Fold this sequence. Notes:
Strand order of the largest sheet of chain C: 1-2
Distance between the termini of chain C: 24 Å
Order of helices and strands of chain C: HHHEEHHHHHHHHHHHHHHHHH
CATH class of chain D: Mainly Alpha
Number of helices of chain C: 20
Number of strands of chain C: 2
CATH superfamily of chain D: NADH-ubiquinone/plastoquinone oxidoreductase chain 6, subunit NuoJ
Largest sheet of chain C: 2 strands, antiparallel
Structural class of chain C: mainly alpha
Number of helices of chain D: 6
Oligomer: heterotetramer
Structural class of chain D: mainly alpha
Radius of gyration of chain C: 21 Å
Number of domains of chain D: 1
Strand content of chain D: under 5%
Helix content of chain C: over 70%
Amino acid sequence: MEKALERFYSVFAEWGVPSIVPQLIVMLVVVSVVILFISVSVMFMIWWERKISAHIQVRYGPMRVGGWHGWAQSIADGIKLLLKEDIIPAGADKLVFALAPMVVFAAALAAYVIIPFGPNLIVRDLNIGVLFYISISSLTVVGIIMAGWSSNNKYSVLGALRSAAQAVSYEVPLVVSVLGVIMTVGSLSMIQIVEAQKRIWFVIPQFFGFLIYLTAAIAECNRLPFDIPEAESELVAGFHVEYSGMRFAIFFLAEYANMFTVSAIATALFLGGWHGPLLPPWLWFLIKTYCIIFVMMWLRWTLARLRVDQLMNLGWKVLLPLAFLNMGITGLILVIHG
Amino acid sequence: MVPLSHYLILSAALFAIGMFGALTRRNAIGILMALELMFNAVNLNFVAFSRYLPQTMLQGQIFAIFVITVAAAEAAVGLAIVLGLYRNFKSVNVDEINLMKG
Amino acid sequence: MTQAFNIADLSTAAPEVILSAVAMLILVLDFIAPRGKRDWLGYLSVLGVLLTLMVVIRQWGATRSAFSGQYLSDPFALFFKILFLVSTALILLMSIGYLRGEGVDRGEFYGLILFATLGMMFMASAVDLLILYVGLETMSIPIYILAGFLKRERRSNEAALKYLLMGGFSSAVILYGIVMLYGLTGATGLKEIASSLTAGTGMFSNPALILAMVMLAAGFGFKIAAVPFHMYIPDVYEGAPTPVTALLSAASEIAGLAILLRVFLVAIPGLQVRWTLLFYVLSLLTMTVGNVVAIAQSNIKRMLAYSSIAHVGYLLIGLVAGPERGISATLLYTLVYALMTLGAFAMVILLCVGEVKGERIDDFTGLAQRSPMAAAAMLIFLLSLAGVPPTAGFVGKLYLFGAAIERGYVWLAVIAVVNSAISLFYYMKVTMAMYMRDIPPAGLALSPSRPLRVALFVAVVGTLAIGVYPGPFLDLARASVAGLW
Amino acid sequence: MTVTQAVFFLLAAFTLGAALLVVLATNIVHCAIALVFTFFGVAALYVLLDAEFLAAVQVLLYVGGITILLLFAIMLTSRISARGVKIMNEQAGISALVVFAILALMVFANLKGLVLAAAPLPASYATASLGRLLLTTYVLPFEVVSILLLAAMVGAIILAKREREKD
Lengths: 338, 102, 485, 167
């Protein structure tokens, strides 16, 4: 991979083109590949979610479009959304309204930089890897508040505020739960964290960390049982109630992209990343990731929504102390073992 | 490479912009934002110095971390005060909040 | 370079460790304290402060450095720590009755006062700009909160907001000064900065260094309420709860002065010619504006605010006069000033009963008839603030002005004396109200709080003791500045 | 002009533009959003200065913490209809003059007074050593800041919480 890149750069250097040109080309290619991957993966996930929900509720779900079990339903939905009229509400703040989905999507996209699909299959192995994801993911909240506020609709503002409060509250246990792994490895780099799991996956020594991470991550994605921000029955659809067409599609895309990201990070941090017998590394990585996504969907269609006060209690009074306990015990063990 | 002077001028400009905002804004939250700009300008200077000065200790970066942390605490307290103020005054404009004259 | 967290460092910083433990204990105990019965938390905090004070006094005489040379426990630091701890103990004693009177049932008040004191202690011991800045903020942020502690009171909200915005602004200015010093020398330790500055030739006419000096002086000027950086002070003093006002004037400003002395004397002594001029002007402006504006005030907290501004002007005289006489005179005067200001604010709290807040000068009408003792105490504080013998204020001013004259700043001393005469005028307004007018028909109630009376007693005794027998206190101040530079 | 310089100028223009918007925009929410972009600009400059860890901290704390708090406070204290309100006080003109003077002084002092020739040192992998320094050499400020955060947290809760009805 790197050799190919070098050869690519050297070709341009021979022609005397400034190095910024091939760099830009590489960037563009990487970004388009990531966007393509996100779109395909999200379409698959949406179809999957509809099938899973249907089967949990003893129905079939979409069956017609595309033949076998309605596999093309998501594509049809996507085309529909893209072709729909683009409506900006009259009282909205147009600039912010237009900017919000882009901010949310940019945050989702940026997180893919550090997902290690395989030993060499990573956009950039930053030395602050995990921290990069944690910091960039907070941008989503800003985008959500922008969307909620600019819609000039009290439901969307309420949804946005709830979402922000929830994300901020669950980000703390999420960060602390990850610390156990980081302390054990002694590095923030995703590649090194995965490499360290060659013999034993961190899900075993860091089982509580894994559970806390998963819970907090589901809350970060605003998914049931933590979907108070968009609770259809009380808030219509939360912050994006006024959005339609293309812009709505972007929010939708970002939401599922985020779901994939948190699962991929969980895979890398706790489930040994690409490690596994026989199959190629990237396949192992995807299998593990989709397993976690499946669990998230399963939970969504099984559990009931939490009330706001329960939600805050769980975050601050249960998850956070547990996460600190986990961190403390990990540190203690590390010190004792030298 | 970018010379150090560029960073210094940029930081000075950022500081001045923040100062202007802090002096002229009516909204208390606006003033808080302007203060954050000033802190950012200082931090930029710290990081630039710690990159360009011949030394091994990362003092500049350490200092910047502390400044960021303190600024966060200050902003949290400031916003709590603003909320309490709004409850009593129904306004957050500093020139309307003037019970005491002297 | 790498030095682990060890026991020796902790024992050097034992006062801070104990005080922070007490503060956290108060916060925890506040949860189990039954509603309406939280006075004992106040007494417990006083005990904690006294315990810390004992530890500080035991450390007296030794100079020890800790935490990679960022923390220094020298006589200068210990002097200010004693001052802060005594002030805090008195303020805590005042707060117990005050909180009860205002219907505030919260133990966090005491905890936050302790945190603020902790910040001041770190400031006193800081010989590194980083710990100096962090200590400064550890003092300021609890005070922002304390200023707004009476949530239903609009003036308290206003005071908190103004103090926070000005505090944040001045912090940013100070930080810019710090970053310039760092950029010039590549160090944040005060001693390292000084040595690196003397190493380079032509350093002392360097515009960047002068900019750093001006920025630091302006930022510290905000913190110690020097004119022209004083605009917010009267509003904050008036709006904040009275014990917090006392904390601001008797402790926080002095802590600002402590770091100002340390930074200018230790880190940039080479610029003394320049900063002497700067502080000459500041001192002149500060005392004149403070005294002249104070005349017009009818609110006693506001009047004391301007009076404290004026006193900052006096304190700066010592810095102008320079080492070593001037600095030790400044140190002595901080002690005097803290005691008499605390006493005056304690009197305001004594009169703060029910609807009467004790804040208007008229509230003092007929105090001599109601309680001759209280009136006498107030008289002593006012005379001391004005600088009339045989009170502490007189002794303090004598040494300060004497130091100025000795160094040839005769005009500054003359203006300071004229200012003292002006100040006598507005202090006497209160005396007139107390002694010359009859008690109003509505009567005059005094707060029944006993700890407040203890605080008043201590302040009176202190003010008189320094006034009558200043020798040991002057020796203390002299010993504290020895070895500072 | 090298690529790095081009990137620097772009980032500088972006940051300053966003900062100006923070100060001049008429709608306070726009200010907050511009502030997010300023913070990002500064974070990118940190990356340019090889301080990746600080860049991440900047985004995490400023964007994830402070801006969201600011936005919360704005949502609770003003409404979208509050447009066209005067945003500046009467002293805008004189403040601008003063600030320009100060800026000129600062630039002059910076350029004249500091040693600017120094080329940057080779970058080193700093994150681990930053962590080590924080817990060894700088352990005292680290602990003091944690006390400060505790005090600020307690205080912010006290101030922001609605008072219980008179009991």
